[in-house]
Amino acid sequence: MSLVWKRALLVACIAPVAVPAVSAAEEAASQGSGSMVLDALVVSATRTETSVMESPVSVTVMGEKEIKRTNAVSIADVLRDVPGVSVDESSIPGMKRIKIRGEEARRGAVLIDGQEITDHTSYGAPILVDPALIERIEVVRGPHSVLYGSKAISGVINIITKKGGDKPFQGSAGASFMSATQGYAANALVQGTKDNWDYRLFVGRTEEGDRHTPDGDLPNSNSDNKSISGYAAYRTNGHKISLAVDRYELSSGSTTSPSTIGAAFSKFQLDMPTRDLQKVGATYDLDKPNDWIAKLHVDAYYQTIDRLFTQQVASGTAIPAAQAYDYSHRDQDTQATKGLTAQADWTPHKDHLLITGVQYLRDDLDKSMTRNGRSGVGLATVVSRYADMEAHTETISIYGEDTWKLPADFSVVAGARQYWINSALDSLQSNDNGYKTRSTSDAAPIFSGTLLYSGVPNTVLRGGFAQGYVYPTLVQAFTGSYFGASSTTRPNPDLKPETSNNWEFGMRHGSGGLTVDASMFRSVAKNYIASLSCAVVGTSGGQCAAGNATEGTYVNLDKAESTGMELTTEYRIDALGLTPYANGGWIRRKYFYRSASSGKTGVPTVSGRVGLRHERTLWDGATGYADLYMRGASRSDELSQGSTAAGTISITRVPAWRTFNASFGADMGGYHLGLDLINLTNLTYQTNPDEANQQGRSVIFNVRADF
Fold first, then answer.
1. In a domain, 399, yes or no
2. Does 260 score more than 80 pLDDT?
């Protein structure tokens, strides 16, 4: 897009704003006593509305005010400082994903308005929703498979979008500038409520160039994200019917460390020109049809994801001549998802709230992969492989959870879910004999239970147990991938589902301006799915064949263990308008496979943020704020298969780091101005092995107007 068009779009987004108004939600959030964080209502913790204070699981809620003040242009950056959360780029900065408690991103459930974004890849679902569209985000840390199904083994990220407003016509427009990428974000929203109707229409675009770091620009790290979203709802006599339509378009380059070129590779270029999502969803709600039922809810959606990856890769000087290669890869697929959930919230007794539900989910994957090029001594051997495949996975499950208030300030929350899953590679056309049609199935129950005690003033204590469950993805079980280095990653239809047992103890306290939310957890996952070199696996595991030591395959590790603590605390000094705060976590994670084990999992032992916020009234109707903070993490090492030779083990080392940052802003009537000063010491750093070098000293400027 030319500079003229960029400026025109920025002007178009902010020019129509003429009648500023103060958001009622923001006014509510700035008033009251005690902890607004713990008083906030959350639905993801129990699939029905409850407060954070009474939640049986670890949960963080970010409202519209907090989201706006981050000045972030991606959901991943909004959530970056949530305890237990880290960001995964995996060489594609435009496609950031979220990891919870050290688990891979694909092991966490991502929901938009309660409906899951399924993603049958090895890396997990990116979150493409524009932060300006979001009313609040709820992050559940720890397994929530009982209520949200497979893929919620590490947690749940539920994104609740804005719906109708308080007036027949209102809206907002905003724009941001990011100096580190010479990028911009622009968005516009109109919404309203008229008689029994609610509506909303949103458009947004974020375009970023190559990321500038203290060591220079990251080549091919640019991205372009477009979004459009519409919503309409009708309410009458306790009934509510709604329809939502969303489309997100993403294209992104993939950056490679300059040190990679030479020894391992003489050429490495990966691009993702297409990663688009289209979704149509409908919901029906009925409030309190009788004394026994508090609410009925039904939602259904149809979603498609279109992906295209291209790669140019050639061996470097460290590769033996017999294993030399020069390949061109193309991977294109379309995934179609149908989902349906029906839930009833029961009130059979004044001390019980029982929810029961049934869920149906089907994913169909149409995938095409090609590899063309040459290999061997002098690159004399022509290579031309292709695989066109269609696969599906279908899940039916029923679930229930009962919250029972006991005497003496105790409560019990107990739940269960039963799965029935079938999955298959339905059709195959290929000249690669590493694939064959297969089908798999499983039926499994899982359980959870938590005991809460609220007998201590302004405090809730909890202790609980939960089981997690993850079924292999279609890529892991049936399609595999030609991508990565030179090797094919073979699928493994004999993979077992991952299961986990998890224990957690926590405490929440809020009084007199002090807020404390702390938790300790222990997780033991069995049959953990990972990809390994065939030189390590051998012919006894996965789909490795004799003579294919340079390939890889998916296998079940024996187990993965995690032990950790998380803390969020702040103390609001109203007389001074100051709030010192700290949040972060400590985690030790370890993998076990056969007779070997490793604690080098790429997860920093300690990470977090500490800072001091100040907020004050500038004049009538205007509030200013400042936030001075430090982010940091300890060293994180990751053990992985090397690229220089079959079976070579390498360690990626990421040093400890800390950055100093500042954020300033003002809310003036219906206008918001924000300024972030990032990495003031211009430190060269990575947050973890799954992120590229981060931006150097830079600024983010944001302006928004509500009308």
1. yes
2. no
